[in-house]
Design a protein that fits this description.
Rossmann fold, globular, binds flavin-adenine dinucleotide, 17 strands, 29% helix, 6-stranded mixed beta sheet
Length: 438
C-alpha cells in the first residue's frame, strides 16, 4: 500500500509542478499534494481514499496513472482538448434505487499461462484447458479449438470421431470445448460438471480483452493468438455467419465502442495488428456532468452477454444430444472415457493438483431499472494490499449486460472464505465518483 501512496504522491507532485508557478491556485495545489486530497471523507463530491481519481482545477475529474506514461493521465485542462474529439456518453444511473444484486466471484488464474497441454495418465489421455483468469470469454473459443488440435496431433492415440469423450466442466471453457468438438465431427460427448448454474462464466462482465492474467512471455504469445481466433468466432456470430447461432432468437454478442485509459491497458493491439479491429483513437470522454477524461476509444469492441451465450451454447449442445451429468469428481479415474478434456476452472487446482492455480476475486453490482448503455468502459485505479494482506487491484468498469453491470476488483488469492464484502461499498463509491452525477 505504501508504494502506491508514494507513487500517487510523486505523481501529484509531478503534475502540479508543471502548473504555472505564478498561479495562486497552482501554488496552493502544490502545498496540498501530500496525498491529502485522497484521504478526505467519502462524500460524493470529494476525493475518495485510493480511488485513483481526483478533481482538477476546473472541477473536472481526472484519472491517476497506472503506467509509466504519465502524459496519458494529465488532467483535461492540461490537454489540448481542442484537438481531440469529444465523445459524449450517458453515465449509468447509480443512485441506491438503481442498484441490484451484488455478486462476488472468482477468476481461475494460472501463473505462467492457462494449461492447454496433453497429459497421459494410465490409459487416459487428458487435454487440459483451464486457468484462463479474467479472460475466459476473451480467449475461450480459440483455446477450445487449440486443445482439440493438440489432441488430434497426438500420433500414438486413436482419437476418432466416434470416440467416447468426456468434458469436465460446464463453464464457458467446457461448453466451448464441447461445441468445437461437435464442429470437428465428434459426437459421443458427455459433459460432467459439479455445477451448471451461477458459475464464474455466467457472472463475468463480458468484455473481450485479454486482461487479468499472469502469463510468462511464451504464454502471452499463445494467449494473443487465442484472442485473435476468438475475436473471429464472435465476429462470425455478429455477422450472422454462424449457422448454429443464426437459428437462435438472440445471439448475445454485439459490437460496441469500448474505452480504456490507454492502449496498454486495453491489450487489444494484437487484434489491430491482425486487422480485425481498427486502431484506437484518443478522445475526451465527457459524461456531461463535469466527469471528463482523456481515454482511448476502440469502436469495434466485442461485448458478450454471458448469460445469453451460456444459454445459447446449452441449447445448441442439447439439440445435438450431448449428455450432461452432474457430478463432483475427485479424480480423472472416476471418468469412464479414454479421452478427457479437463475444463474444470478453479476446480483444476485440486483435480490436477496444480499449485500454479489461484483465484482472483471480483466484485460486481448489477444495475436495475435502466436501459443498458451502448458502450463498455474499463479504468484501473491502482494497486495495494487489503487488510488481509491480499494483493488488490481496483478498477471501475461498466458493461451493458442485462440492465448494466459495474465492477470491479481483482483480489489475488481471495476465495469464498474471504468475501471482502466491504468492497461493494467502495466499488459503488468509486463508480459514482468516476461517472459523476447522473
Ligand atoms: C468478476 C469477473 C468478471 C469477469 N469478466 C470477464 C470479462 O469481461 N471477459 C472475459 O473474457 N472474462 C471475464 N472473466 C473471466 C471468466 O469469467 C473466466 O475466465 C471463465 O468464466 C472461466 O471459465 P471456466 O469454464 O474455466 O470456469 P467456470 O465458469 O468456473 O466453470 C468451471 C466448471 O468446472 C466444474 N468443476 C470444477 N471442478 C470440478 C470437479 N472436481 N468435478 C466436476 N466439475 C468440476 C464447475 O462445476 C463448473 O461447471 C471474469 C471473471 C470474473 C470473476
Amino acid at each position: 500500500m505504501k508504494s502506491w501512496i508514494n507513487r500517487a504522491t510523486n505523481w501529484y507532485q509531478s503534475v502540479f509542478n508543471r502548473l504555472p508557478a505564478a498561479s495562486p491556485v497552482a501554488t496552493s495545489r502544490r502545498v496540498n499534494t501530500q496525498v491529502q486530497p485522497m484521504l478526505s471523507n467519502d462524500n460524493y463530491d470529494s476525493y475518495l481514499p485510493f480511488s485513483g481519481l481526483f478533481r482538477t482545477q476546473t472541477g473536472n475529474l481526472a484519472l491517476m496513472p497506472t503506467t509509466e506514461d504519465e502524459s496519458a493521465y494529465l488532467p483535461s485542462e492540461q490537454l489540448d482538448t481542442g484537438s481531440l474529439p469529444v465523445v459524449n456518453l450517458t453515465p449509468p444511473k447509480l443512485d441506491d434505487n438503481y442498484l441490484g444484486q451484488q455478486i462476488d466471484c472468482y477468476r481461475p488464474m494460472r501463473d505462467g499461462s492457462p494449461n492447454m497441454s496433453i497429459e497421459f495418465i494410465g490409459d487416459q489421455v487428458i487435454a487440459h484447458n483451464y486457468g484462463h483468469g479474467g479472460s475466459g470469454w476473451t480467449i475461450g473459443p480459440g483455446c477450445a479449438d487449440y486443445v482439440i488440435k493438440q489432441m488430434q496431433a497426438e500420433k500414438k492415440i486413436n482419437f476418432k470421431h466416434d470416440s467416447k469423450i468426456s468434458v469436465i466442466g460446464a463453464g464457458v471453457i467446457g461448453l466451448m470445448t464441447a461445441y468445437y468438438l461437435l464442429k470437428e465431427g465428434y459426437y459421443n460427448i458427455e459433459i460432467i460438471a459439479a455445477d451448471f448454474e451461477h458459475l464464474a462464466s455466467h457472472n463475468a462482465g463480458g468484455l473481450l480483452a485479454p486482461v487479468s492474467m499472469n502469463n510468462d512471455p511464451k504464454g502471452q504469445e499463445l494467449v494473443e493468438k487465442m484472442c485473435v481466433n476468438s475475436y473471429r468466432f464472435y465476429q462470425q456470430i455478429v455477422d450472422k455467419r454462424n449457422d448454429d447461432f443464426n437459428k437462435l432468437p438472440k445471439t448475445g454478442v454485439k459490437v460496441v465502442p469500448v474505452y480504456f485509459q490507454n492502449k496498454q491497458e486495453a491489450a487489444l493491439e494484437s487484434l489491430v495488428d491482425a486487422k480485425l479491429m481498427k486502431p484506437s483513437r484518443d478522445v475526451i470522454v465527457d459524461f456531461g456532468n463535469g466527469a471528463q477524461y482523456k481515454m482511448v476509444e476502440f469502436l469495434d469492441g466485442i461485448f458478450i452477454d454471458t448469460y445469453e451465450v451460456m444459454y445459447s451454447l446449452h441449447l445448441i449442445l442439447e439439440e445435438k444430444n450431448i449428455k450432461f451429468t452432474k457430478k463432483q469428481l475427485q479424480s480423472f479415474g472416476e471418468v469412464d472415457s479414454t479421452f478427457i478434456f479437463n475444463c474444470a476452472g478453479m476446480g483444476a487446482q485440486e483435480l490436477n493438483n496444480d499449485k500454479n492455480m489461484r483465484s482472483v476475486q471480483g466484485h460486481l453490482c448489477m444495475l436495475k431499472q435502466q436501459t443498458p448503455l451502448d458502450y463498455m468502459i474499463l479504468i484501473y485505479l491502482g494497486e495495494d494490499e487489503n487488510n488481509l494482506g491480499q494483493k488488490r487491484k481496483k478498477s471501475v468498469y461498466y458493461m451493458p449486460k442485462s440492465s448494466g453491470v459495474i465492477g470491479g476488483t481483482f483480489i489475488e488469492d481471495a476465495d469464498s472464505q474471504t468475501p471482502n464484502e466491504e468492497e461493494f461499498d467502495q466499488l459503488i463509491s468509486n463508480a459514482r465518483l468516476f461517472f459523476g452525477r447522473s
